[in-house]
């Protein structure tokens, strides 16, 4: 011991630094606090979790949430290092659990250890999305229709699938209020009731990207909130008069629609297999669609003639064989009827 040695003013031990020694610092420092209660708010309808004032979708069970919830009640001193918190959770009732925590760490290079208990409260509250859905809230309706005709079952199914996929993508991206409230099939098409204007625009754009067409918006003022005007928007979506694989008749020839453009269509001539563009007004009749074609078995196939078995009459029918037809005896071809006329389609 020398006159240059430093002493702890509390216990008198020699220290390397000014002030209290490590042990006295530990004993005089409140190195952690533990809240008596920790509350978890979740939606009983969709299991979303509320953090502060924000709802977040979650698939976690109570057993997964409880340890982190209990740890959130512990507040450590900034100087605590290498902290480890072990948690044991015991369920008391449906809405209450107890978390028993054992806390270890280092404070001023000295090991510290203690225990505490926190009550876990499981609070139920309807989330923002479920509250809007249950209250039949909506901001618009997408009216899916076809121009000059009724949509086919295939088109209706495709529109519903695209709408559902759009909702799933937005929900997974965090847009909880971009939801579909209802999808109603009617004679003229489908009405899709939506929870936000953003999802309405995306549904229209995604359907048009897949099926063609156009849409117009028709806003209607429904009130005010916080000085801001509130509108509900009708999205009038119209897919084209023609759809891919339609069988059309024009100027004595039959063709299968290969592509639909804004004011014309591209068809494959079912006679010689060539492609050509024609205006919508050039089409005299729509015979049907190749997706609804019947299967007919190939009986024989020569260089220029092909014979198929009529599935209705059992008679053999001969056709001129074109380059686009690729079939051998025993294969099947797709056929569409136009009255007494039978057409081989792709």
| Spatial extent as radius of gyration | 36 Å
Helix amount: 10-25%
Strand order of the largest sheet: 6-5-4-10-9-8
Please mark out the parts with pLDDT under 50 across 5 or more consecutive residues, or reply none: none
Instruction: Give the strand content.
Output: over 45%
The number of distinct helices, counting runs of at least 4 residues, comes to 5
Secondary-structure-based class equals alpha+beta
Count of individual beta strands: 25
Mean pLDDT: 86
Q: What summary fits the major beta sheet?
A: 6 strands, mixed
Indicate the overall shape. Answer: elongated
Distance between the termini: 103 Å
Domain count, please report it: 3
Q: What pattern of helices and strands is seen along the backbone?
A: EEHEEEEHEEEEHEHEEHEEEEEEEEEEEE
Kindly describe this structure.
The protein has 346 residues and is an alpha+beta fold. The protein has 3 domains: 94 residues; 104 residues; 93 residues, no CATH class. 17% of the residues lie in helices and 47% in strands. The chain is built from 5 helices and 25 strands. The strands form 6 sheets. Strands 6-5-4-10-9-8 form a 6-stranded mixed sheet. The N and C termini lie far apart (103 Å). The model has no long low-confidence stretch (mean pLDDT 86).
Summarize the structure.
This protein is an alpha+beta fold. It contains 5 helices and 25 strands. The chain is elongated and about 115 Å long.
State the main characteristics:
346 residues; six-stranded mixed β-sheet; 3 domains; five-stranded mixed β-sheet; alpha+beta; 17% helix
């Amino acid at each position: 011991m020398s006159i240059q040695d430093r002493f702890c003013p509390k216990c008198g031990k020699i220290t390397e630094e000014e002030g209290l020694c490590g042990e006295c610092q530990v004993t005089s420092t409140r190195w952690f606090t533990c809240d008596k209660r920790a509350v978890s708010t979740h939606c009983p309808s969709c299991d979303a979790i509320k953090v502060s004032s924000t709802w977040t979708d979650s698939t976690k069970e109570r057993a997964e949430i409880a340890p982190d919830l209990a740890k959130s009640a512990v507040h450590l001193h900034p100087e605590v290092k290498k902290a480890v918190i072990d948690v044991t959770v015991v369920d008391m009732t449906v809405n209450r659990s107890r978390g028993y925590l054992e806390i270890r760490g280092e404070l001023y290079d000295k090991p510290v250890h203690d225990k505490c208990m926190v009550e876990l409260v499981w609070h139920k509250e309807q989330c923002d999305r479920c509250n809007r859905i249950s209250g039949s809230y909506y901001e618009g309706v997408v009216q899916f229709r076809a121009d000059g005709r009724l949509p086919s079952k295939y088109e209706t199914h495709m529109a519903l699938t695209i709408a559902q996929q759009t909702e799933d993508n937005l929900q997974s991206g965090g847009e909880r209020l971009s939801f579909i409230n209802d999808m109603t099939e009617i004679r003229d098409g489908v009405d899709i009731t939506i929870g936000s204007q953003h999802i309405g625009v995306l549904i229209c754009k995604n359907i048009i990207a897949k099926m063609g067409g156009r849409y117009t918006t028709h806003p209607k003022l429904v009130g005010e909130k916080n000085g801001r005007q509130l509108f509900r928007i009708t999205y009038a979506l119209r897919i084209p008069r023609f759809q891919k694989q339609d069988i059309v008749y024009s100027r004595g020839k039959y063709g299968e629609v290969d592509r639909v453009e804004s004011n014309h269509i591209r068809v494959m001539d079912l006679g010689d297999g060539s492609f050509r563009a024609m205006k919508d007004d050039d089409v005299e009749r729509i015979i049907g669609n190749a997706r609804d074609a019947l299967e007919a078995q190939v009986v024989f196939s020569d260089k220029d003639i092909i014979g198929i078995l009529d599935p209705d009459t059992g008679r053999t029918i001969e056709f001129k064989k074109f380059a686009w037809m690729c079939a051998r005896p025993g294969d099947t071809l797709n056929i569409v009827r136009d009255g007494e006329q039978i057409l081989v389609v792709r």
